[in-house]
Write a structure and sequence with these properties.
- The complex is a heterotrimer of chains A (69), B (909) and C (729).
- With 69 residues, chain A is mainly alpha-helical.
- In chain B, helix 27 links the parallel strand 24 and strand 25.
- Chain B is flat, with a radius of gyration of 33 Å.
- Chain B has 32 helices and 28 strands.
- Chain B starts with a helix and ends with a helix.
- Chain C is 65% helix and 2% strand.
- The longest helix of chain C has 39 residues.
- Chain C has 729 residues and is mainly α.
- Chain C contains 27 helices and four strands.
- Classes of the chains: A mainly alpha (69), B alpha+beta (909), C mainly alpha (729).
- Chains in contact: A-B, A-C, B-C.
- At the B-C interface, strand 5, strand 6 and helix 11 of B face helix 7, helix 8, helix 10 and helix 17 of C.
Chain lengths: 69, 909, 729
Amino acid sequence: MSVLVLLIVASLAMAGFFLAAFIWAVRTGQYEDTCTPSMRPLFEEPVLGTGAGVDGQPELEHSSRPKNK
Amino acid sequence: MESAACSSGFALANNVQLMPNRAKRAVGRPPTLTRVNGTSVSPPSAECGEEVELAVAAARGEPVGGSRTPRRCHHCGARCGRAAAVSEAGLDFCCVGCRAVFALLTENGLGQFYALAPNPGMRVGQSAATSSWGFLDDPSVQRRLLDFSDERQARVTLDVPAIHCVACVWLLENLYRLGPGIGESRVHFGRREVSIAFEPARVKLSEIAVLLDSLGYRPELRLSELDRAGNRPVPGWRQRHWLQAGVAGFGFGNVMLLSLPAYLGLDSLSGPWFKVLAGWLSLVLALPVLLFSAADYWRAAWLCVRQRLVTLDLPIAIGLAAIYGQSVYEVATGRGEGYCDSLTGLIFFLICGRLFQRKTFDRLAFDRDYKGFFPLAVLRKTPTDEESVAISELAVGDRLLIRHGELVPADARLIGGDALIDYSFVTGESEPVPRRAGEHLYAGGRQVSGAIEVETVRPVSESYLTSLWNNEAFRKPRDDERQTLTNRYSRRFTLIVMSIALTAAVFWLAADGRVAMKAFTSVLIVACPCALALVAPLTLGTAQRWLADHGVFLRNAQIIERLSAVNTIVLDKTGTLTAPGPGGAAWSGAPLTELEQSCLRSLAGYSSHPLAVRITEMLRPFNAGPVGAFSERAGGGLQGRIAGMEIRMGSMPWLREGGTLRGGPEMERAASGETASCVHVAIDNEYRGRFVLQGALRPEVDVLIGRLRGSYSLVLLSGDQPREMERFQALLGSKARLEFNQSPFDKLNVIRELQTVGGGARNVMMVGDGLNDAGALRQADVGVAVVEKVGSFSPASDVIVDAAQLARLAEVLSFSRRAAQVVKAGFMVSGLYNVVGISIAAAGLLSPLVCAVLMPLSSATVVLFAVGATRRLALRSFALGKSHRSGRDWAPVGPMECSPVLAEKGNLS
Amino acid sequence: MNLETFRYDNRIVRAFAMATVIWGLVGFSAGLLIACQLFWPDLNFNLQFTTFGRLRPLHTNAVIFAFVGNGMFMGIYYSLQRLCKARMFSDFLSWLNFWGWQAIIVSAAVTLPLGLTSSKEYAELEWPIDIGIAVVWVAFTVNLVGTILKRREQHLYVAIWFYLATAITVAMLHIGNSLAVPAGWFKSYSIYAGVQDALMQWWYGHNAVAFFLTTPYLGLMYYFLPKAAERPVFSYRLSIIHFWGLIFIYIWAGPHHLLYTALPDWAQSLGMVFSVMLVAPSWGGMLNGLLTLRGAWDKVRQDPMLKFMVVALTAYGMATLEGPMLAVKSVNSLSHYTDWTIAHVHTGALGWNGFLTFSVLYWLIPRLYSTRLWSVKLAHWHFWVALLGMVFYVVPMYWSGITQGLMWKQFTHEGFMQYPNFLETVLQLIPMYRLRALGGSLYIVGACLMAYNLWKTARSGKFVPEQEVQAAPRVAHVPTPTGPSRAWHGHRWLEAKPVLFTALAFVAILIGGLVEVIPMYLIKDNVPTITSVKPYTPLEVLGRDLYIREGCVGCHSQMVRPFRSETERYGEYSKAGEFIYDHPFLWGSKRTGPDLHRIGGKYPDAWHYNHMDDPRLTSPGSIMPRYSWLLTQKLDTNALPARLAALRKIGVPYPPGFENGTAQKELQAQAAKIVANLKLGSVTNAPSDGEIIALIAYLQRLGTDIKAAAAPTPGPKTVSVSAAAGTRN
């Protein structure tokens, strides 16, 4: 079953790689804050030029959402 | 849009919850109100607390502010008084400040701010920008504040308690759009922190602060805390432990993988080479786990060796070394594939257990900080009069009246009166230092001469005050010989375990070599120290929380152990058994003029002695000018000069000290037969009469005594004349010992004597008035200070009881006794577990891996038991009494990341 | 700091979105077609290009790599830019990725019906296309990592981690499994044989599911669900933990596809153990998703996108719970080779991948065109129709799976097989197959509604090809109070890190690749060889290639499992040693027809001849299509030398020079013998050079070698000699 060796070594290489990734992530404080990052994806960057929603209404691009009625 | 409306309401509700008090007043919409207008209120998010609530729909769909009545500020959501509202573009604003911010944001394309949550802003008001931040540009200050700085750019991390919702995060992280030179800014929601990169060349730190302030996100600076190594939560350990856990997990997973075939039985298809390969690979994989993940154990063990100590880490370290050695030997000699699976598994689970333990400890510490607050209150000057406010309500700039013996709650500037400040429990320096008007007073200092008036310059940090309580300066004379249960047990435990392991090994060596190793290691490993280490802190910590919720505040959790040992109770009469409040006080003697009355009132007002307090309450206020040359002697009385009058009030001897008294038969009668405790008054050495104060018992005190007299030997100490001897003898029972005319020093002696007779068999609890009995409280094994609503912080005591809760003392005692029993029981449980586990292990029937799995399990069970039992206990004991502070759930709110800051700001209370 | 102004590339997103919709429809339709062929065999219009055997791989490839693949790229290209606050690393790579991928799909759509296949499930494409895939995938990986490098947001959102895992793992798996030795432009033989090939194939097969159908979509879920629900994910920490959990475990669950096969016992158990362990991380994702929506159910009521999302997550939960269950040996003994597996995978494909893709499309298109969805109502219709379709698909399949599984194992009191004739158990399922087809068509109707809706939406709005945004440059620093200074000094090091990552990534892939080749020649293989097992004769080799070409493996297994119910029905159970010359292995994963491993010698040659001409002549009611072209088409013997040479290269012991000369002669001889046999069976007009002859030769050889161990060897003498020679060198 020589193929086992391949699988084992390949998987170990894989796992090792991800371990390195894990260590990097922790060391660089990726997981310092497990709270704020979950909010960031929710923000849309204001589109330039258009004085984004002077009346508090965001410009079209952001306000686009399925009709709810 | 109904969903929107509700979630918006919810968001606001949370603003209300989470903003510091000033802001709270601004966004004056009660949570209850807002919850009404929505059907589905989304429950809190797992980590970030409920504050993270979006209502984009709301802001988008409806013209915000307009549709809902009454009109609300489009920016901060505060009610706009019909008149006050400033309008712009059809939107209402409560003030110019809010409108300014709105304009600023929209001009810079940040209008989306109002779309992320309805009225997400912070009340700004006109005052905002006025406060000067100039001092931030002072190099010395910057050195302390900046995380980093070079000529090109700098980075500062500021506390912004006002951060409360997603919109805040968004706005603060878009700060760079609002000013030149500001770069990337990142919010740490949990810590309510924002760290901002900026170019010193283009923008000054003070400007940034002003910008934040003007936006309503007033940064909170903690220069002095930085000196005190900061109370910012330091997750350093977490980082390392997660890493260790990760590495261990990785090693464990893969080693298991290589060992499983062996478990499942290798068959003809996979040849011998596989076994060898697996063996060596496992060894390699186990190495980093052993060296890195288990590093702490090596370190700890090494320490033990160096300091000739015996701790629980030692056996574990030995065990680990043993297993790995064994494995290397087996693989190298080809006898087997070793125990790397067990080893890595063991370490992995050990680390998980430790992570769990750490979290629990943190939580306890954190709870102590924020549950441990006691209702400190101070007198705040108002234009007309004084009002007593909880220090959490204090704002910078408030004017406070600090009376003799009271604590300076926050860094403040001295305004009136000459201060003599005792910093003994800030600096340990016992010599009081004089301070003159205009000088700076540090929080935690204690005024020891007369009353002074100060103006706070920085906000109060309750946790800081609490920490003072545990200051070295207040260690008990008998603290040293006392050992906590845990220490006592764990030491023995370790020794026993190690001896067992050795004997087992020796025994098996004779019988069967391989088993010997297995038995040895598995004994060392199966012995579960975690349980031992956890039981006490958990139980006591939980208990402490409960007590705190019921108006009984402990200096630290260990006090419970001592409370449980108490068998003698010494009670102080005045102000403890008898309430200053309701007891009637009558003036007997020549009637006093209004001026005289008010003079007396002012003088009495300078003292916090219960009697003085009652007199103050009895007399009508009337401005009589400042008090000069004030002095007070505990057990004696007060003296001072007001409106040109030399006034002494207190005991007869005290009056006489002032010089020969002039006075008629009135005085003679007073000197001879006194029927109740009274305060004599002399003005300019002329005896004027006396306040007769009926020492009325506090409500339910008789019930309390009734409970206590059965199981404790009671002693009553009183500074007053033995007038009411019979009355109290009757109350306390014939066996009780009553002492009158006790000076504070006498009281102390009585207690010392009590402690010494019978070879210290007696554990004395002193219940007294915090300030006047300080000495006694400190001498006693447990000192209980009874504080009025206007509580005066008395660090000498171990326990502070809200006077209203005094009647509960019996419950408290029985509760703590039971709690201590729970601890012992917990030890029993883990002990039992260990007996079983160890015996099996010693028999060589347990594989190290199984042990490794059993360990965390056992800790978990023990912990559950401890907390559960304590909680049930508490529920039983306190079923009757309603929680002391309403709205404070006993379970910590949210995870560590997001809570401490709230706690620190005391917002949850 | 001066702000940086940059543009998000929406064009590439739109391109992938379109491709997703189009290929989705194609894939679904192909599925519907072959579904109908199962109760209406003539639906291939008697064309060889449209038989079930050839279209099934087309269906799976179209759905997995075309539909899900494009959907995945669409989502990644949209979310990655925004999560990193940066445009894609290189527009060139983006478009290389797009057009390359479409080219691959098209070539698949061409080659598969032509019967050019490696016969390895989900890796059927032949080697030139495989290389193409590798190239495109590397382009994608570089683009991904490059974007991550130049990001302006320093935290890597959990979704990005899922993307990274996808890119790297799939690369390794693809290379690992596709290693083959070419024998001509569109023919190759897997370098692994029999058991080993099986293990490798399912290690790949399973992880393809894991890292192509699961991780990227979890990433999309973590981005688009919060966006749609307008609230952050329930527990970010949970998402982190279950990511690492998934990463470290999933890679090992492969072998559970081979339970009770000739795979080493412990390897099977290993697969079982790890598959069961998988439930935890999988459910971590599902619960996290669903809990994110708690309190937003009113939104779910109104927003079709969220509806799709909810069903997707639920389906994911069901599938990930069912998978490990199927991996439990006892369950597997019943479920394996039946429609239960089909039901399982379609819960995942239709529910998880399909619905999630729809949901993302409904959210994305309006935003790309800065408008509102043309008709929410229509979207709701799509939802309900598709849901109904799913139910109609999955339920009958469970039913038929369990029915057939039980019938196979049914014994009478006297201890005989209740249903000795396999066909009986098939005919039972026809109604279920009809229902399934209904379900499928409903699903397609739904998809058409969506296509129309999205088209109208696009028409109603104005496409925003480039979205201009501003952001502050990323100041690399570690926001940790433990040591800001340290953090700052760590800055360069940190910057350098992701580079090191890319390096690591390719090193890992390289190791993956190299390490998988080298030991093949270093380690002496110790699969117990059965002396009587000989290499296939030239004719049989060509016959086997026909078997592969026609995709027989799609319906017929070649693996008799060690159960009485199977040994009674088919004969001696299969041994690992019997497959050492099987490049690739043909164990199969589904028994629409009976197992064929012991078919050799079971029927006379004539029976096979007639059966191929029209199955319903020999077995009335059979749902197998006619293979009449096998009778007419001439056998291509020119390919023989190349193929034999290739096989020798990977260890099949043909003596050197065998292919030129001797091989041809042997072929003729064996063909002649078969023609003679056919004459006995009153088949007179059989051409000795027809493809049918080769196929019959192969079928008659199947599983006979160990019988030969007892009886004297039937195989042509020369071969046995040469084989002996081969085993010597």
